Amino acid sequence: MKKIEVKIPGSSYPVYIGNGVFLQLQKLISKHALYKNIFIIIDENVFNLHSDKIDRFISKSNSKIYLYSINATELNKSSSQLSDIYSVLIENGFGKDSLIVAIGGGITGDIAGYAASTFARGVQIVHVPTTLLAMVDSSVGGKTGINFESTKNIIGTFYQPNFVLIDLDFLKTLPEEEVLCGLGEILKYSFLIGGDFLEQINKKYMKILSLDTKFLLDVVENCISFKTGIVEKDEREESGLRKILNLGHTFAHAIEIERNHSIKHGQAVITGLSCALHLSNRLNILNDTLYKEYLSMLLKTKNQIQLGLFYPMKIYEIMKRDKKSANDKIRFVLIIEAGNVVIDIEAGMVDVMDSINRGLHHFVATEHK
Ligand SMILES: NC(=O)c1ccc[n+]([C@@H]2O[C@H](COP(=O)([O-])OP(=O)(O)OC[C@H]3O[C@@H](n4cnc5c(N)ncnc54)[C@H](O)[C@@H]3O)[C@@H](O)[C@H]2O)c1
Questions:
Q1: pTM to 2 decimals?
Q2: What is the 3-state secondary structure (H, E, C) of 175-195?
């Protein structure tokens, strides 16, 4: 089992990565001397597909365990789902000395993390990510949150877990379109990291889609190590460094809302990266050669993303309302070349609208073009 240490003053923790390592959960809980009042928040699909593993963990444990399952949708990443979690915690006698174990994708991790950071002014939490997206990104770094009205992740906290346990074995049941979503965040990391990692992802991206365990172990380790390096320097997005992790996301979040969540987060990230490349090129930050090279990496996925007819003005208005907006301009993370990005670049309506149009049209079914 590999181990990456996230060294944040006052809240350092390890990320364990391996294949078939879920069986070690109880041992790790004991090793870290965590509480034995365990409230598992689990994605109901994961529970149905992996009940043998969960049952084995429960039967071998000498802890008090409550199993709470959720239907992981963006609409349920909500204050009403959160209220239900608080109610069930209280009804079942959970208090300050509780450990929440989040087993699922980014939706489960985000809402469980928020519940852990607020319930009884903060209880312990362990993340067990089960989607590729959560393994390479959302389970590490401590961002928690829920959606409110029609704004994504607008309510949230920074709350680091006690440890993260990544077991690639969960991926065996992950639907193809969810693997593609993970690829979306991996492509983002390849643009942020650059060099050999970008080359490997470009050459071997089919190994990701076919869930080649050996390659995926490397990919997950690279993404998590990179994110760890950023989070250690700027945990709360104060110096600005952490903002680079939002590459493509200002567009992506607005596209998700405009599509009323009919497009998945990871798919939206791929289309958002396309818009960010267009804007970087339009503003003469990214040269034509690199622009074409990077865009071609994204377009390998275009047949698997059906955006449908979209409304650029609506996407633009949602972005303006987003917290990243200042005056009439919106600030973006843009790319000079892979491994070298710039933050807080302001762009006006004409540039942004053009980038939405040009960035998204690749992903629209032919009849809408
Ligand atoms: N906190 C962060 O830093 C951060 C970073 C990136 C994304 N996010 C958030 O993460 C969310 C997206 O996460 P996601 O892509 O993991 O989606 P998700 O949690 O919705 O999971 C996607 C789907 O896969 C199913 N699933 C999960 N694991 C499975 C498995 N092993 N086998 C079969 N099915 C499985 C789920 O039931 C769900 O239907 C978004 O809400 C996004 O805002 C958070």
A1: 0.96
A2: CHHHHHHHHHHHHHHHHHHCH
